[in-house]
Amino acid sequence: DGGITQSPKYLFRKEGQNVTLSCEQNLNHDAMYWYRQDPGQGLRLIYYSQIVNDFQKGDIAEGYSVSREKKESFPLTVTSAQKNPTAFYLCASKGGRVTDTQYFGPGTRLTVL
Amino acid sequence: GDSVTQMEGPVTLSEEAFLTINCTYTATGYPSLFWYVQYPGEGLQLLLKATKADDKGSNKGFEATYRKETTSFHLEKGSVQVSDSAVYFCALILGTYMNTGNQFYFGTGTSLTVIP
After folding, report:
1. Using CA atoms, how far apart are residues B10 and A99, in angstroms rounded to an integer?
2. Which has more pLDDT, A46 or A83?
3. Closest CA of chain B from A50, distance in Å
4. Chain B contacts of A40, Cβ < 8 Å?
């Protein structure tokens, strides 16, 4: 089955630690995205990538970093510089046409202890 | 700039009631419009979409019509069920690969609870 996987589903981090969230897709999509969702809030774009080895900052990139070494993978690192990292993180991917649907993974819930 | 505005929730309805969730947009060009649904603890799933004016998207009894004259894409369902309880997001995408990077703009979401 084609789709997007995120791991882990739940992640706990101590303050001051970096942590990396995984996102993999087998939909052959060029574009991939990371969003942050806080309780009762909408989605805020962290980073997105249109092609391998290229990515752009979204609205709230500070304290986060990404890489796109393979088409299938778009890992997100939450660094210690992110002041309030506890949130639900969603990864998504999309085909090349503007009208294509954006498909989402199941999400990772990150909690800072 | 480009944006989406949704009616604020939460919305609570009795089973079999009629549902409307309002969505209006601001866009500098001709967007494609989407409704996504999110169940607790999960990612977003596409519910329906419309890519040009006067198009109607429909799925699972839900409908929305792309109204360019009122810049709206309201979500409707004639008879809701308990299983429809979720958060609904309106979204748009605008532009070409070169101009906007295929960025989606999401509304803040509307929480729906359907009671038996």
Report:
1. 30
2. A46
3. 7
4. 111
Per-residue pLDDT of B57-90, as tens digits, reads 999 999 999 999 999 999 999 999 999 999 999 9
Q: Looking at residue B100, what is its pLDDT?
A: 46
Which residues on adjacent β-strands are paired with residue B36? B46, B89
Q: Which of B36, B92, B103, B111 to substitute to test the interface with A, most A CBs within 10 Å?
A: B103
CA dist list (Å): B17 to A45, B11, B31, B35: 34, 12, 31, 20
Determine which helix (DSSP H) or strand (DSSP E) holds B97, and give its type and residue range: helix B97-100
Whether B9 has its CB under 8 Å from any CB of chain A: the answer is no
Which of A6-10, A73-77, A92-96, B79-83 has the weakest average pLDDT? A92-96
Residue B50: φ, ψ to 5° = -145, 135
E-state strands within chain A: 4-7, 10-13, 19-25, 31-37, 43-51, 54-57, 64-66, 76-78, 87-94, 102-104, 108-112
pLDDT at A1: 62
Supply the pLDDT for residue B101.
54
Cβ contacts of B104 on chain A, cutoff 8 Å:
33, 45, 102
Which residues in chain A have Cβ-Cβ distances shorter than 8 Å to B103?
A: 45, 48, 58
Q: What residues of B are in contact with residue A43 (Cβ under 8 Å)?
A: 44, 89, 106
